[in-house]
Amino acid sequence: MRPSLLDPLFASASALPGVGPKTGKLLDRLLGDADRPARALDLLLHIPFSCIDRRNRPKIAEAPIGAVSTLKVRVAEHRPPRAKGPYRVLTEDETGDLTLVFFRANSGWIEKALPLGETRWVSGLVELYDAYRQIVHPDRILDEAGLAALPPVEPVYGLTEGLFPRVMAKAAAGALDRLPPLPEWQDGKLSRAMGWESFGASLARLHRPQTPQDIAPEGKFFTRLAFDELLSHQLGLRLVRARMQVLRGRPQKSDGALAARILGQLPFDLTGDQKKAVAEISADLASDKRMLRLLQGDVGSGKTVVALLAMAHVVEAGRQAALMAPTEILARQHFATIAPLARAANLSVALMTGRDKASERRATLEALASGALDIVVGTHALVQDDVAFARLGLAVIDEQHRFGVHQRLALGDKGEAVDVLAMTATPIPRTLALAFFGDMDLSTLREKPPGRQPIDTRAVNVERIDEVVAGLARALRAGARVYWVCPLVEGSEDSDLAAAQDRAEDLRKFFGAEVGLVHGQMKGRDKDAAMEDFSRGATRILVATTVIEVGVNVPEATIMVIEHAERFGLAQLHQLRGRVGRGDRKSSCILLYAGPLGETAKARLEILRETEDGFRIAEEDLRLRGEGDVLGAKQSGAPGFKIARLDLHADLLRAARDEAEKMLASDPELTSERGQSLRLLLYIFERDQALKLLRAG
Ligand code: ADP
Ligand code: MG
Fold it and tell me: Boundaries of each Helicase ATP-binding domain copy (predicted)?
């Protein structure tokens, strides 16, 4: 149970003073989750990313162009709009003139705010227009009393459409007022050495900065919070790990006969990295330690075979294995790969998803419970309450970052001493692997299976789309299959969908019934049918939103077109491109972009053209964008950080790791006074799942 001391932080943001129902909804959209509204805590941890310094108070003639200034002016003349133009107010001081410009403004309001002949303070971005200084829509128009109340440095928050800065600032201030005094959870010596203030004082300063340096990510207020977050994360990981170790494993012995039979079926040899991974996993399985291993390998690196060999090992040792994938499409695909190989080796395999007929599901449940079934492949349907295994020995979790901690552990909890193999196709740079996976053991497939042809990658301006379509026509005549990916339109799944539908319509004008469409809002069965048509070659151009991102395998597809490539992150582009180049034919990837491109977008497309090495791409991504986006944190439900930035705070991460280790060594149950305080920290950063393990253990 969460200590009641923290209750005010977990109250919904709409309950804060000054937050009405409309603002409440906007805050939910910005800071809430699908299953919960925004809370006061979310507002507090939504740190301003920038600030406006209103302390610059120059004379008009000295106001720097292109910067925000706060100026004392006399209102000299009102010029209401003639016909359509803006409303202009001419102002002056002893050094020069400044025009205030208002578009579509209410003239009554302007006359009242800027009375003729009076003196006012105006604050905003000073620009030069036709050699005259002007401010378009001043941020502030104040009299002397108003100026006295103006915060010298104003925080700037990430917003969502319809949510105005001042409303946001007010809500954040309301949340700050609710923050109760909390006991200190950081070590006093460390805090003193770093010059840190308390959690509350640091938050307060970030939301009410006195100088722009106050909110710098390298500054003491920010680093204090970043360290809090990193420490909570490290503690969470270590508590999970500790439980895995307490729950002893069971040696699963195999002489590799089954695996050898499967290997004999394969039309290829394992790569060196695959062999190494299989050996590492077999050693874990055979030992009496519990396995908690992450198999990381780029798209197409051949993780599925490795997983299958691990499962064969476990079956040979007399137990069952389960593979859980995040989507229906992926589960079906794994099943299609695994079933024939496993059956040829006399293993029984079934598929279980949320869409099974009741009779099918019953039969599978019975076979799992009786032990008749060796291997089951499925979606999170596998962790439902009525699923029971006779003797589950291995849980394989594909695309593990798409599951919550809870779901990940739940599959392992369906048996005794279950070994866990997690897989991810998102290459994690080494600097991040430590943070994200803590003490998980790591096997890496870096080497690609042989015979892969490099993917010819080009960036093409969307103005040349006609040439691209003509090129597709030629390729289709030669038998090619094509993915055409439409981008996420910001903030709206509907317009996202519309874009894909429009594109499919366009392409049908040229290619008729050869064009298929798959998007995230389709029913599961329709989605599978569309994928299936493409996979059989009934359709040969598949227009898709990013639903095809993960794992889909159609080796005949050789062309990938990505529309508005500039809107995708580097890692995502890499994943998408990985859908082609899976067979032995030459593949290409066309990155259609709408110019002009910014520096970062240009660099991203350039890196993609240069390399297909997912690890290198991940490092570059980190360098270009900072840690937050590497895993597409929000989209994929990855264990992202709200505050800490690993491109800047790598040292803090190491320190947090040491601190967590030291703390748990002396107080493994977090029962001491400081341990109790650290529990609060775990709740604040939502790593409290780990606390449940303490009680359960
Ligand atoms: P991923 O790591 O993305 O899950 P898959 O396991 O789907 O990759 O493998 C991609 C493709 O490569 C599959 O068609 C698989 O049969 C093939 N493959 C796997 N290992 C090898 C290998 N050692 N040599 C040749 N092809 C391989
Ligand atoms: Mg895969």
Answer: 284-445
